[in-house]
DNA sequence: CGCGTTCCTGGGAACGTTCCCATCGGCGGC
DNA sequence: GCCGCCGATGGGAACGTTCCCAGGAACGCG
């Protein structure tokens, strides 16, 4: 290996200028395809840059332009595939508008999230998208003082902060209505606890049951957004006197826990009990699981978040916009009419 | 909303200096806890900064210091949970050494990956970690010219580029030995096709079978690293004359496909057929799946990658180091002795 | 009380760009 | 053929920090 590879020497615009025999200004313009550069010079500059392996310094550029052409996305948990798809949407829109996407993560930890947000702000990304963060509203509001902020999958109200969420109440209603239309009446909910959106899903479940005249059949078991939580919730439902013929789980992961509990109890799905998840993650689509579930338009949520950021970046001011996207039901193998008993 | 929130005005060190009645130099030192600042001034500066909502500009700092205290990680696919855990390791070590981690992604697309790497290089991150990238070796080598580069989960040999991988051959051997120790002889492999590591796993499988005197029982079915691929591979194994009593899948995802095929064929797991996956993803740990699998030390791989980067950052030169970590077997519910038939 | 030393403090340069403006030819029109 | 204009080019300032260095205040000691 040459010495060059060991010590990081990086050519600057001045090196290119010297090699091409022109001024730094001309190099700058030539490399950015600015109009007033003669073809001959342009070629010479290109070649010199190529030979030197020159790469523009985005740091210096950001400093002088006072913008980075970059949006920062803080994701609370990369272990949750939900965010990967949100990011797909963000990146698709960003790329189409000449923005680069930088991702930071807070690993399910409040302090780490605050730190990650701080990193983005110090880096002076042009906008910040916060995906389902646990950040204090104070921090969010503070961030909004210096940069456009969009919240995804969190409905908090902060002045000037746009939000993009999914209609959790409606999603829960879809699940209940689907099961009712199959003929179920004893439809129980394994709750998501304090997870984001779970309160709205619970309300939606209750409202839908009431609207269908099934208020007496309402049954909510405590759970959370994990495999284990779903398992516990289902166990408690199964020990009751009148076991439900259908269960709505807080999310897909919890639904797999429900599946485990049902299997242990010797109950077949969907012959004995029907099951609906929430999120339509890749997990639900696995044939071994093949879970009927509520689809959240995650990619669209990411797209919408990025578009909201772009609107602010283009000078769009005014009050916060709160976009609520609609979920839909995806039927797979875990729901059917109750056994004619 | 105040006008302030709409237009992004950001105080600079000069604003803080003016408010505190000191020079910019002093502000700089005070805020960085440099030694030679009197307590009174330090407090005054702190307060002024606080009141203004001052946040240091990392861009300007990077420019003058010629380092960013940041490492960039390019991840080829955030939909693959493997990377989330690698990132856990990277972040843990980075945080312990005062480095921030910036993530970019190439969404399984070569061109996008090249672009993402370019972003990192232009941003002048102090080091770059490439997680299982599809990047051309030319690009990797070019990047190495200006910054320390570490490859994770890809064993390519590039001058000066450290690599951290897992011993796939040994992992496959562990799976085979486990099954053989349970009494299995007809142990088949559902292959991972051209996926990373799958060639080494195939070789490991063959070698282990041979070493155990089971060369005649070798059976490899074409598959890939997806649910669907595992399903197809298992189907072809089950239509053969002598069906295997045990199957090794290319990875955990493929193993769920195998589970589906086995269920469809009316075979019980592990009573009729035992199954071993690879990766030990969260999927394998779900009780509904409860898959015996080969654990890859992903977090450790991330840690090792970051440590390798730190070593280069501290001036460590010399030839590339290639670290190979050892996998281990995690026994769950999908393996047992073959039915005494 | 003077002098040297130790703390503090402030000014200026530098980092690598972009942008504005001035300059310099050359060319076309009257 | 002169004047004005336009296209091409270069020089300098600015972006917001950090770092180096010079200078000043305070203090101790003889």
UniProtKB/TrEMBL annotation, chains A, B:
<dbReference type="Pfam" id="PF00356">
    <property type="entry name" value="LacI"/>
</dbReference>
<dbReference type="GO" id="GO:0003700">
    <property type="term" value="F:DNA-binding transcription factor activity"/>
</dbReference>
<keyword id="KW-0805">Transcription regulation</keyword>
<protein>
    <recommendedName>
        <fullName>HTH lacI-type domain-containing protein</fullName>
    </recommendedName>
</protein>
<keyword id="KW-0804">Transcription</keyword>
<dbReference type="InterPro" id="IPR000843">
    <property type="entry name" value="HTH_LacI"/>
</dbReference>
<keyword id="KW-0238">DNA-binding</keyword>
<dbReference type="InterPro" id="IPR010982">
    <property type="entry name" value="Lambda_DNA-bd_dom_sf"/>
</dbReference>
<feature type="domain" description="HTH lacI-type">
    <location>
        <begin position="11"/>
        <end position="65"/>
    </location>
</feature>
<dbReference type="InterPro" id="IPR046335">
    <property type="entry name" value="LacI/GalR-like_sensor"/>
</dbReference>
<dbReference type="InterPro" id="IPR028082">
    <property type="entry name" value="Peripla_BP_I"/>
</dbReference>
<keyword id="KW-0678">Repressor</keyword>
<dbReference type="Pfam" id="PF13377">
    <property type="entry name" value="Peripla_BP_3"/>
</dbReference>
<dbReference type="GO" id="GO:0000976">
    <property type="term" value="F:transcription cis-regulatory region binding"/>
</dbReference>
């Amino acid at each position: 290996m040459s010495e060059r590879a060991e010590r990081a020497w990086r050519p600057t615009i001045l090196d290119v200028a010297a090699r091409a025999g022109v001024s730094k200004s001309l190099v700058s313009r030539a490399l950015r395809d600015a109009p007033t550069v003669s073809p001959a010079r342009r070629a010479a500059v290109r070649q010199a840059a190529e030979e030197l392996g020159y790469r523009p310094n985005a740091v210096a550029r950001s400093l002088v332009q006072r913008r980075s052409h970059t949006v920062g996305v803080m994701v609370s948990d990369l272990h949750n595939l939900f965010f990967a798809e949100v990011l797909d949407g963000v990146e698709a829109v960003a790329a189409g508008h000449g923005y680069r996407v930088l991702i930071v993560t807070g690993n399910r930890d409040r302090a780490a999230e605050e730190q990650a947000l701080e990193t983005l702000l110090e880096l002076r990304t042009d906008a910040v998208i916060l995906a389902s963060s646990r950040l204090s509203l104070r921090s969010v509001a503070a961030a909004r003082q210096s940069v456009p902020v969009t919240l995804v999958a969190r409905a908090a109200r902060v002045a000037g902060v746009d939000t993009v969420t999914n209609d959790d109440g409606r999603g829960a209603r879809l699940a209940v209505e689907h099961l009712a239309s199959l003929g179920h009446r004893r439809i129980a909910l394994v709750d998501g606890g304090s997870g984001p959106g779970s309160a709205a899903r619970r309300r939606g479940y209750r409202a839908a049951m009431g609207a269908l005249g099934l208020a007496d059949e309402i049954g909510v078991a405590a759970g959370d957004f994990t495999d284990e939580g779903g398992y516990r919730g289902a166990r408690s439902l199964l020990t009751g006197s009148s076991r439900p013929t259908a269960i709505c789980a807080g999310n897909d992961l919890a639904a797999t826990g429900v599946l485990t509990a049902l299997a242990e109890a010797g109950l077949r799905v969907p012959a004995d009990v029907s099951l609906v998840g929430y999120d339509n993650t890749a997990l639900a689509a696995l044939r071994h699981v093949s879970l009927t579930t509520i689809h959240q338009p995650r990619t669209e949520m990411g797209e919408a978040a990025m578009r909201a950021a772009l609107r602010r970046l283009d000078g769009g001011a005014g009050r916060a916009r709160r976009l609520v996207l609609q979920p839909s039901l995806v039927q797979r193998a875990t729901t059917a009419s109750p056994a004619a008993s």
